[in-house]
Each structure stands twice: as C-alpha cells, then as structure tokens.
Model the fold of this input.
Amino acid sequence: MSVDLQDPRCETVALWYNSNQPQEREGAKKGCMRALLAFAQEMNCDMGPVEYRGVPPYNHGLEQVGIRLVDPPKAMMIPGLRCMIASCLMSQRSQGVVSEVNAFTQELDPKDLEQLRQITRRAYKIHFPHETDPTDNEIDRFITEMGPEVAEERLCAGKEY
Done:
C-alpha cells in the first residue's frame, strides 16, 4: 500500500545522501525516521507505516504529487547523490490516551501481546537496523503509545507497524 502524498494527514521529510555509500542510505533512512518520530511526539500524533524512496536530484516527477525538492548545494553534487524521502500518515491522538508503560498491554491476551511484540520488534529492526534490540518494556511502551485502535488493526491485518 502506498502513502497518498496529497492526503492532508501525510507528513514528508527528506535528506540528501550518497547512494554509493550503503551506510549513508541507512543513515538517511534513520534520520528521516527520527524526524518523523520527533514531529509525531511534538504534535501528539500516531504514525502510520513509513514509506521510503530514494530519488535523484532534479526529479521533477515528484512535483506532480505535491513534493518540490530544493536543489542540493553545489558542493554536494557528486555521482550517486540521492534524496531519501520518507512519508507517512499522521493521526491525532485522543485526549485520554494513557501513555503509562504497560497500561494497555496488561489488558491484552498474552498471545495477542506476544504477536504485537513480534510485529513491533520487526518494524523496529527495519527502521533502526544498527540499534540494539529493545526490551519488552520498551516494546510495550511503543505498543501503548500507538493505542488500542492501531494495535487491533495490526493484529487483524497481520501487518507491521
């Protein structure tokens, strides 16, 4: 499923990177994810799945879907220069969402909790491949912050966050 970039709930960030250096691609993805997470936290929003795309400079096709890239600085014009674009839908959290760790997860069936932990761990490893594995408490915090509606949706759909 593709993120609709013209959806008013869609947030997009972008970082320039050298595609000839694999670690820079991962660093650009991580930087984009951190920017989206910071925005979501600041705006008290929940994030949907993140979609990444690497595009070359002067990719004017993106303007058709509402993204206008700023030209890279001339000093950055090197072979392999790409722009990592990360997009996701954001939804406003309900006012009464409890952010206390384990508050929501303690109410889950143990089988459902374990399945949500596995889904969340896989998503975490995709977005942060070089980070250490999060503890169960950290994973439970992510699940709680996403809220019951998102958790139920993921369990039913069997998709990753």
In short: The helical segments are 22-42, 110-127, 136-157.
